[in-house]
Specification:
Blueprint: H1 3-15, E1 20-23, H2 26-33, E2 43-47, E3 52-57, H3 61-67, E4 71-75, H4 86-100, E5 107-110, H5 128-138, E6 143-146, H6 148-156, H7 160-178, H8 180-183, H9 190-203, E7 213-221, H10 223-226, E8 245-254, E9 257-258, E10 261-266, H11 272-291, H12 298-311, E11 352-355, E12 358-361, E13 365-368, E14 371-376, E15 379-382
Parallel strand pairs: 1-5, 3-4, 5-6
Antiparallel strand pairs: 1-2, 2-3, 7-8, 8-9, 8-10, 11-14, 12-13, 14-15
Helix pairs in contact: 4-5, 7-9, 11-12
Length: 386
């Protein structure tokens, strides 16, 4: 663990009066130990003194050694001798670890909320409910309290090292978008464009700084781009037509730190209507960025963008909030800070989130520009300035 994050964790545990926290979600393990689990079959345990452990499948040890300074406690998920579940395989390692940490009568924070998690692999196990039962059996005299709110608050404010990884993730994502303009032309199917952008992203040079990097690119054209106001993106087989608005959305990651990016193109010369949409969105983006500073209310940032869209006659076309937390999550509208008209969140230095003013017209098309930004002492840093 780098010292800045370790100090913040210790401070948070002391403030919440936790002797230790034990978490299983991939993003929480990443936060607490620096390691991003592959299949979710790992757990993090960290004491108020800052001693961090990762209990993980033995075949993930090599990956963990490259990214975490925590003590690694490997276990064998299964063998040819025995078929086991994740929680069965974890029982003995947890018995040994909790005994060594002296947690028999401790106040222990565990995850209780059913929050959203970005995918760390094609499949991922969720065993936090089973772990809670196991821990209560192992430690019948311990006091178990939810640490979900504490974890989410810590995720919201990134350290300087975490911001460096997010900048790198944004740089890698840019390689996909660099190929976008050349791919968008009448006659091509949305799936062809999305596939080409993903290929360009995968082929980009990541150097030796990233162990695992992947992402998803979506293409939505014409009337389909108007449907992009929904909670999820979807690429179809529709052929792009002359004059279409073509929206490209991407969620990419570098070692567990995510981006959330959208750009909108025109297939051919833009119309007067499309130019008006683009001007409004650009001005709304600028207004939102100008409102970002430590101490500002998140709803003020949303209001700055929303008022500009309204002044251009696009108030009803801007159908979602201006943004949400990004970094440990990619597409979680409840990730802090929530850039929403009703948000009570206060911006702090190190917070990262997206700014995504947009306009959607059913049956015609939609336009959105989504950037990832970080709060600095002087205002906002746009991490996806391309």
């Amino acid at each position: 663990m780098h010292s800045e994050r370790s100090k913040r964790i210790i401070a948070a545990l002391l403030k919440s009066n936790f002797d230790a926290v034990i978490c299983t979600s991939a993003s929480a393990v990443l936060l607490l130990t620096g390691y991003w689990p592959v299949m979710g079959a790992s757990a993090a345990a960290i004491s108020k003194e800052g001693e961090a452990h990762v209990i993980l499948p033995e075949d993930e040890v090599e990956l963990a050694e490259h990214s975490s300074g925590a003590f690694l406690v490997p276990y064998r998920p299964s063998s040819l001798v025995r078929i086991t579940t994740t929680i069965q395989a974890l029982a003995d390692p947890f018995c040994s670890l909790t005994t060594r940490l002296g947690l028999s009568r401790a106040r222990i924070g565990i995850e209780t909320d059913e929050g959203m998690q970005p995918a760390s692999y094609i499949t991922s196990v969720d065993f936090h409910s089973s772990l809670a039962l196991l821990l209560r059996q192992i430690l019948p005299h311990a006091d178990f309290v939810s640490c979900s709110e504490t974890i989410e608050q810590m995720k919201a404010i990134k350290t300087s090292k975490e911001l460096e990884v997010m900048r790198l993730a944004a740089t890698i994502a840019a390689s996909g978008f660099a190929a976008a303009a050349a791919q968008i032309e009448p006659g091509k199917r949305e799936a062809e464009v999305a596939g080409a952008l993903h290929s360009a992203f995968q082929s980009s040079n990541r150097g030796d700084h990233v162990e695992r990097s992947d992402g998803l690119f979506f293409c939505m054209s014409g009337p389909n781009s108007a449907k992009a106001a929904a909670a999820y993106a979807r690429t179809r087989q529709r052929k792009i037509e002359e004059g279409d608005l073509v929206m490209i959305h991407a969620n990419t990651c570098a070692d567990g730190y995510w981006t959330d990016i959208t750009r909108t193109y025109t297939a051919g010369a833009p119309t007067e209507r499309q130019n008006a949409m683009r001007v409004a969105i650009a001005e709304a983006r600028s207004a939102a960025l100008s409102a970002i500073r430590p101490g500002a209310m998140a709803r003020e940032v949303d209001g700055a963008a929303r008022s500009v869209m309204a002044s251009h006659g696009f108030e009803k076309a801007f159908k979602h909030s201006t943004g949400h937390g990004v970094g440990f999550a990619a597409a979680n509208g409840n990730a802090l800070p929530r850039i929403h008209p009703q948000s009570t969140d206060v911006l702090e230095k190190g917070m990262t989130f997206n700014i995504e003013p947009a306009a959607y017209f059913d049956g015609y098309g939609g336009m959105r520009h989504c950037d990832v930004v970080a709060v600095t002492s002087n205002g906002a840093e746009v991490l996806t300035e391309f």
